[in-house]
Design a protein that fits this description.
With about 140 residues, the protein is an alpha/beta fold. Helix content is about 25%, strand content about 30%. The chain has three helices and seven strands. Helix 1 runs antiparallel to helix 2 (about 30-40). The longest helix has 13 residues, at about 10-25. This is Nucleoside diphosphate kinase regulator. It holds the Pfam family GreA_GreB. Keywords: Kinase, Transferase.
Length: about 140
């Protein structure tokens, strides 16, 4: 990985993500392993202390996939919430896992299954639960 900026993760998100990682099946193992690396290197802090410019779970994020020159707006959700979130992207999807903990302006080189990679840039956080005082969402 040539570029992985520092990340910050909400303590409750980290606990929930670790449970997902521990329960991952073979088809999700690649993403689970990548996500676990992120949890291990991330700074884990209380939800109340999350800065407003950090992607946390349930944040609506505007980001650019620089590899494909494609800008998207997605809400980063747990897999079970995909069906009820119109613009949802699962944290267990290859691109979704790469978003957690990044700040506005950060770029990350993120591995994809099969050996490829995506270069992602966070352009804006349109909605963040912590910013709205929703610390346990």
């Amino acid at each position: 990985m040539s570029s992985r900026p520092p990340i910050i993760i909400n303590r409750l998100d980290a606990e929930r993500l670790q449970r997902l990682i521990d329960q991952a099946d073979d088809k999700d193992r690649f993403v689970a392993d990548c996500l676990e690396e992120e949890l291990e290197r991330g700074e884990v802090i209380d939800p109340e202390d999350i800065p407003e410019d950090v992607v946390s779970m349930n944040s609506q994020v505007q980001f650019t996939d620089l590899t494909r020159n494609r800008q998207m707006i997605r809400t980063l959700v747990y897999p079970h919430a995909l069906a009820t979130t119109e613009d949802g992207i699962s944290v267990m999807a290859p691109i979704g896992a790469g978003l957690i903990g990044l700040r506005i302006g950060d770029e990350i080189d993120w591995p994809l299954p099969g050996g490829g990679k995506a270069q992602l840039r966070i352009d804006a956080i349109l909605w963040q639960p912590e910013r709205e005082g929703q610390f346990h969402r």
